[in-house]
Design goal:
- The complex is a heterodimer of chains A (299) and B (318).
- By secondary structure, chain A is an all-alpha fold.
- Chain A has helices at residues 2-6, 8-43, 60-65, 69-81, 84-99, 106-118, 121-131, 138-145, 160-185, 189-197, 202-213, 215-229, 234-239, 252-262, 266-298; strands at residues 46-47, 55-56.
- In chain A, a hairpin with a 7-residue loop joins strand 1 (46-47) and strand 2 (55-56).
- Chain A starts with a helix and ends with a helix.
- In chain A, 44% of the residues are buried.
- Chain B is mainly α.
- In chain B, 67% of the residues lie in helices and 0% in strands.
- In chain B, 43% of the residues are buried.
- The model of chain B is unreliable at 1-32 (pLDDT under 50).
- The chains are: A mainly alpha (299), B mainly alpha (318).
- At the A-B interface, helix 2, helix 5, helix 6, helix 7 and helix 9 of A face helix 1, helix 3, helix 4, helix 5 and helix 9 of B.
Chain lengths: 299, 318
C-alpha cells in the first residue's frame, strides 16, 4: 500500500491495464449471466409467450406450479434419479482402492473406466437406448443368458428410472474413481503403518483413515453431482422423447425446456427455472455449511 | 453449457507429486528368485493383485461393452441386429453402413459446425481467460476481489435458469438458427479456466514480474513472454477439457439450431436416432454414433495424461 502513494501514476497505469484484461469476462458475466438471471426472475412473475410483451401476473406462475401434477412429478423424478449418486460413489471408491495397489495394468484400467466420461452424452444416450431395447438390447440379451426375462426398460414406467440410474452410474464412475484415486495417493503411508502397529484391522484402517482422508473429494463429488443431477436433460430428451411412459422419466429441466420452447409458456417456464436456480443455490449452501462442520470435527 | 459446471479449487500443478499412474508399475516387492523365496506377505500381495485384476477386468468389460456393442452393431446387416443368439462378431461385415451415413444425414456439416464452434470458443476464450487470470492473480486493480467473486458466483447459476432470457436476447437480434449464440457468450472467457489458471499462477513468484517491469516491459509483453510459457501446461489441460465440453454440448444447440445445415454433430446424431429408429435401421444409427464418438476418443487417447492429471488436480483438494 505504501508504494501506491509513492508511485501513483505507475499504479494507475497498472490498474487500467488490469481492468482491460478482465474486462471481457466481466462484460460476459453482466450480459450473459447477471442480466438473464434478473430477467428470468422478472419473467417468472409474468404471463408471457415469448412473442408478445410479458404481462405482469404476480405469483400466478408460482401458485400454478405447485398445483401442476407434471411439475411435481418432474421434481420427484429428478430427485429419484439422484439415488445413483451414493451408489456410484461407493463403487468408485472401491475401484479406486483396487487401482491404488501396486500392480500392473492400472494405467490401462484407468483409461478404460474413463472412456464413458469423455464420450458425449448424446452418443451415450443413443447407445444405451439401444442397449435397453426390450427385445434385442444388450442388457436383456445378457440377462437371457442366465435365464432372466428382462423388462422393456424404457417403455415401462417402473423400470425407466432404474435404467437411467444404471446408465448414469456407468457414465460417471470413471470421473469419481479418478478423483478418489488422486486423493488416496496423497494419504501418507505412515498413518496406515501406525494404525497397523496399534492393531487396527483392514476395516478399521479404512473407516478411520481412508474415509476421513478422502472426505474432501467425497464432498466435492456430492456437490457437483447433485448440481449436475438437478439438470439432467439430454438422456431424457433422446431416450424418452415424450418424457417417458406416464411422464415417469421427465426431469425438471426437460419440463422447463418443453414448456418454454414447445408450449411457448415462457413465463411459467421462467418461474420453474428460478425455482431450479434457487434449489441449486440452496443445495450448494447447505452442503458447504455441513462441510464446514465436518472439517471442524476432523481437526 | 457443459453438463458439469463444477467449482474446482485446484492446487498448483506439481508434476513430480504422486499422481495416478506416475508411479512405477513394477510391484514393490522384488521379483523372487531362487535365492530369495517370496515371503508370506509377498505371496499374499500377489494373490491379492490377481484377485483385484480379475475384478477390475470384469468391470472393464462392463465399461467397454456398450461401446463394443455399438461398433459391432454398426457393422451388421439390418437383419443381423435381431439375430438370436446375439452376434458379437457381425456376419457378414457390412462396412457399407459407414459409407451410407454421409448421405443419410448432414453428418459432415455437423462435424464442420461443431468444429467451428468448439475451435472459436476455446481458442479466443482461452486467450481472454488467461489474460484475466493473469490480472486477477498478479496485478493490482481496484475492486479486484469483488469482480472475481462475482464471476465465481456466476458458476452457481445453472444454465437452464438463463436459457430463456438468453434465447429471447438472441432471437431479438435475429441470431437464432445461426452458430453465433453458441459462440459469442463463451468467447468472453470461462470462469472455471480463469479460476484454475489463477490458482496455478499463485506459484509464480512476483519478483520475476517486478524485474520485468523494471526492465521496462509492458504487461502484455510480460504476459506473452513470461507468463504464457509458464502456464502453458495448465492451459493445455483446461483447453482440452473445455473443447470436449463444447463439442459434447447438446442443450444449447438444441435450443438455437433448427435447420439441418447449421446443426452440430450431437444434434445430427440425435436426429439420426429419431429418424432411422422407425425404419429399424439400427446399424446406420450405431455407425453415426460411433463416428460421433471417435473425435473425442482420439483426443482423449492422445492427451490422456494431461486430461487425467488435470481432472485429478481439479478435485483432489475439493
Amino acid at each position: 500500500m505504501s508504494t501506491s502513494t509513492r508511485r501513483p501514476r505507475l499504479h494507475r497505469q497498472e490498474h487500467l491495464t488490469a481492468l482491460a484484461f478482465v474486462a471481457l469476462p466481466v462484460i460476459g458475466f453482466l450480459l450473459f449471466t447477471l442480466y438473464p438471471m434478473l430477467f428470468s426472475i422478472y419473467a417468472s412473475f409474468t404471463d408471457w409467450n415469448g412473442l408478445t410483451a410479458p404481462v405482469f401476473s404476480g405469483l400466478d406462475n408460482y401458485i400454478a406450479m405447485f398445483q401442476d401434477p407434471y411439475f411435481l412429478e418432474a421434481m420427484y423424478n429428478t430427485f429419484y434419479l439422484m439415488i445413483g449418486i451414493p451408489i456410484g460413489l461407493v463403487i468408485s471408491l472401491a475401484l479406486a482402492l483396487a487401482m491404488n495397489r501396486k500392480m500392473r495394468g492400472s494405467t490401462f484400467f484407468r483409461t478404460v473406466y474413463y472412456v464413458p466420461v469423455i464420450s458425449s452424452i448424446a452418443a451415450v444416450a443413443i447407445l444405451w437406448q439401444w442397449a435397453f431395447n426390450g427385445d434385442f438390447g444388450l442388457i436383456n440379451q445378457t440377462l437371457a443368458l442366465v435365464g432372466i426375462d428382462g423388462p422393456n426398460w424404457l417403455q415401462d414406467a417402473n423400470m425407466v428410472k432404474p435404467a437411467l440410474i444404471i446408465m448414469a452410474i456407468w457414465k460417471g464412475l470413471g470421473f469419481s474413481m479418478l478423483l478418489y484415486l488422486a486423493a488416496l495417493q496423497s494419504v501418507p503411508r505412515h498413518l496406515y503403518e501406525a494404525a497397523a502397529l496399534d492393531g487396527a484391522g483392514a476395516w478399521q484402517q479404512f473407516r478411520h483413515i481412508t474415509v476421513p482422508m478422502v472426505r474432501p473429494v467425497t464432498f466435492f463429488l456430492v456437490v457437483t453431482s447433485v448440481i449436475a443431477g438437478s439438470q439432467v436433460f439430454v438422456e431424457i430428451d433422446i431416450m424418452t422423447p415424450t418424457g417417458g411412459p406416464e411422464f415417469s422419466s421427465a426431469t425438471i429441466v426437460w419440463y422447463i425446456w418443453q414448456k418454454a420452447f414447445d408450449n411457448l409458456q415462457m413465463g411459467y417456464a421462467s418461474a420453474m427455472s428460478v425455482v431450479l436456480g434457487l434449489m441449486v443455490f440452496l443445495i450448494t449452501f447447505i452442503q458447504f455449511r455441513l462441510n464446514r462442520r465436518n472439517q471442524f470435527s476432523i481437526d | 453449457m457443459s453438463s458439469q459446471r463444477v467449482l474446482p479449487s485446484p492446487p498448483p500443478l506439481k508434476p513430480e507429486s504422486g499422481l495416478p499412474g506416475r508411479r512405477s508399475t513394477r510391484p514393490a516387492s522384488a521379483p523372487a528368485d531362487a535365492a530369495n523365496p517370496p515371503s508370506v506377505a509377498e505371496k499374499r500381495h500377489r494373490l491379492g493383485n490377481i484377485l483385484v485384476t480379475v475384478i477390475l477386468s470384469l468391470g472393464a468389460v462392463i465399461m467397454i461393452a456398450p461401446l463394443l456393442w455399438t461398433f459391432s452393431t454398426s457393422l451388421k446387416t439390418r437383419e443381423g441386429v435381431f439375430s438370436l443368439p446375439p452376434q458379437w462378431i457381425p456376419d457378414p461385415f457390412v462396412w457399407d453402413n459407414y459409407v451410407r451415413i454421409w448421405t443419410a444425414g448432414p453428418l459432415l456439416s455437423g462435424i464442420q459446425n461443431s468444429l467451428i464452434i468448439a475451435c472459436t470458443v476455446t481458442v479466443v476464450g482461452t486467450l481472454f481467460s488467461a489474460l484475466a487470470a493473469f490480472a486477477f492473480a498478479k496485478m493490482r486493480m481496484p475492486y479486484k476481489n469483488v469482480l472475481f467473486l462475482s464471476q465465481l458466483a456466476a458458476l452457481m447459476v445453472p444454465f437452464p435458469t438463463l436459457m430463456i432470457p438468453q434465447f429471447t436476447m438472441f432471437a431479438s437480434i435475429g441470431w437464432v438458427d445461426t452458430l453465433l449464440p453458441l459462440i459469442v457468450p463463451f468467447i468472453f472467457g470461462n470462469i472455471i479456466m480463469i479460476f484454475f489458471l489463477r490458482q496455478y499462477l499463485s506459484s509464480v513468484p512476483d519478483s520475476i514480474i517486478e524485474a520485468a517491469r523494471i526492465d521496462g516491459a509492458s504487461f502484455l509483453q510480460i504476459f506473452f513472454r513470461l507468463i504464457f510459457p509458464v502456464i502453458k501446461p495448465a492451459i493445455a489441460a483446461q483447453f482440452i477439457l473445455w473443447f470436449m465440453a463444447v463439442w459434447n454440448d447438446y442443450l444449447a444447440p438444441i435450443i438455437y439450431l433448427n435447420s439441418p445445415e447449421v446443426q452440430t454433430l450431437q444434434l445430427v446424431i440425435a436426429n439420426f436416432n429419431a429418424q432411422y429408429a422407425i425404419q429399424t435401421d439400427y446399424p446406420l444409427i450405431m455407425a453415426a454414433s460411433f463416428v460421433a464418438l471417435l473425435p473425442v476418443l482420439i483426443v482423449f487417447i492422445v492427451f490422456q495424461r494431461q486430461i487425467i492429471e488435470s481432472i485429478a488436480l481439479t478435485g483432489s483438494k475439493g
